[in-house]
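Feature request, filed as a ticket because there's no other form

It would be nice if the structure record came with a short human-readable summary line next to the tokens. Right now we just get the raw output. Example of a typical job, pasted below so the devs can see what we mean:
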Amino acid sequence: MSDSSRRVVVTGMGALTPLGLTVEDYWEGLVEGRSGAATIESFDPEGLRTTFACELDGFEAEDHLDAKQARRMDPFCQYALVSADQAVHDAGLDPESMPQEEKDRTGVIFGTGIGGMQVFRDQTEYFLDNDESRTSPFFIPMLIPDIAAGQIAMQHGFRGPNHAMISACATGNHNIGDAYRLIREGDMDAALCGGTDACVTRLGIAGFASMRALSTRNDDPAHASRPFDANRDGFVMGEGAGALFIESLERAKERGAPIYAEVEGIGMSADAHHLTAPDPEGGGVCLALNRVLENAEISPEDIDYVNAHGTSTPLGDEAETKALKKVFGDHAYELNVSSTKSMTGHLLGAAGAIEAIASIQALRHDVVPPTINFEERDPDCDLNYTFNEAEERPVNLAISNAFGFGGHNTSVAFSKFEG
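Raw output as currently delivered:
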């Protein structure tokens, strides 16, 4: 059954971020303008070009998962399960008491940018130092990127569409967008969707540092992520997960669910330009932005807030700014833009998901979170980036951007819910 007129709403959210291990703590940290960056504590970073990141503070898998279950999961999967469980409960659901027909119409579309990096490193070291026959039978199930979606479905008994969209740092948005479209088209009625990554490992930091993608402000981590500032020198690695529970408006109303926002649409494109560098003129980003506006049937002047991809890289921030000006014209100077990566760092496959949550919270509270660490204006970045302090203003429509290595571009639009 296809019904492309179905409305899709957000009824649950879950987040594990460097600013807090719940949506409430995460949002509080954003509004306060708090940095989650510090010298790495989970391993000794001595000798690396970059020695800091935005780590999860206080997360212990055994506090949320059975100890045996946790041991058989890479951290990226642990983060996914915990954030998804938060979203389920926030949506007011008890999967054990749900009718089977509802579970069969509930999907899990949940991705990761990289997957089981920690287990890959650990098992490679073990393989090289020991008898290969002793390789863990859980190695492959712990490694594969789709396993988070599978584990979430098993945890809650959801038997609807189940897969992982993988597009580097656009992953979170792609998974939200795919879930939205499957519900809108009638293939399922509800879904857990989002993204996760756990790349704050020695190999992960070394790999991104070797590309000169990471900031090297080792003497001042808290001020290293500075999107749109003239002295930005790269992004700060982050880790965590974000989950949304979305469903058709009809189902949400039938069960009296809390409704946080409406998903208006998604725009997607490719730069077709370079392995890692963006199209310097923002051509692919323009396509994604124009497509989300068309998909959502809204005009550029309707948008109040853009949660920018804004990674704090010299090329990326300038290209995104150019795209915003081309698409929004004079209105680009009227809307608020901000990069919450200035506080959380870049969570790779989870970035789009936690930034979607930030955008939804902006709609709910009429507050735009800031872009912190601004000191010197870049003449090529001349929009209102909500520098250093959160701003209260009406926010009725918001767009969240997420772009990935390989030239993947995504823009998702959310609105205040109006019945």
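Something like this underneath would help us a lot:
The chain has two domains: 8-254, 265-415.
The two ends are 24 Å apart (CA to CA).
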